[in-house]
Amino acid sequence: MTVSENRFRLEIIFASTLAVALSAKGYEVTIMGRSESALAKAIEDGVARNSHSVDVTDEAALSAAIAESGPYHILINNAGAAESAPFSATGLDLIRRMMAVNVESAFTASRAALPGMMKQGSGRIVNIASIAGLKGYAYVSAYCAAKHAVIGLTRALSAELIKTRITVNAICPGYTDTDLIANAASTIAEKTGLSTEKAIDHFASTNPSGRLITPEEVANATLWLCSDGASAVTGQAITVAGGDL
User: Do the Cβ atoms of 154 and 235 come closer than 8 Å?
Assistant: First the structure.
């Protein structure tokens, strides 16, 4: 990266590993999320320069936070939530929750950040999607639908911005060693009697590599999309899934 790039300002919606990786590269990082303790720790650890406590499903609050602390050269939409249920037990309330956190937050943040990027003449938007946005999984129809929507949003916005120097891409991790997987494993253990370790092993075996993806691997792919070397890469859904798809 050039020296000028290392002065760029960056927004990360609640992604500590991404924040660490990008801060280490010299980016000035602003993070947003609901956990005030996590935000405070990021500031204390020097991972982020600024933070905003905000519910990313609150359109007005999220838009205001971005307007207040922008403009940004890079926006990473990493807010995500997953809930499982048989299709017969999946109601519109579950669909709406998944859409609000996974899709609407990315839509709102991107719309709020774009005017600044347009004025600057360049920018990067990276949406953290999922391998579930490229294929189907049983018992998570609402989550799969939401992540497919994230990829659709990515491709549509990229097409709209194709004549600009603003790129829009998605990262599609496979099962990754995060709190999301740990919580899902705990739920499976409670419902089935399996140990949490066995449940995690099941998730790991679903990746062709036979292991969980690390957050650092997702961060590295994201860093590349933010680099000059990826200036011609836009509208792509890049899998980081240990050989899946």
Answer: yes
- pLDDT per residue over 28-78, tens digit each? 888 888 878 888 888 888 888 888 888 889 899 999 999 888 889 999 999
Residue whose structure tokens are 């300002």:
9
Q: Residue 6: what pLDDT?
A: 47
Does pTM surpass 0.85? yes
Query: How many whole angstroms separate alpha carbon 91 and alpha carbon 206?
Result: 27
Which numeric CATH code is attached to 5-174+214-240? 3.40.50.720
List CB contacts of 180: < 8 A, sequence separation 6 or more.
Answer: 80, 82
143 assigned to active site: yes
Catalytic residue among 27, 72, 137, 143: 143
Strand extents, DSSP E, the chain: 9-13, 28-33, 50-53, 74-77, 123-128, 166-173, 237-240
Neighbours of 6 (CB within 10 A): 11
27 in helix, strand or coil?
coil
Check pLDDT > 50 for residue 14.
no
**Domain definitions of the chain by residue range:** 5-174+214-240, 175-212
pLDDT tens, residue by residue, 43-56: 888 888 888 888 88
> Shortest CA distance to 238 belongs to which of 186, 165, 188, 167?
167
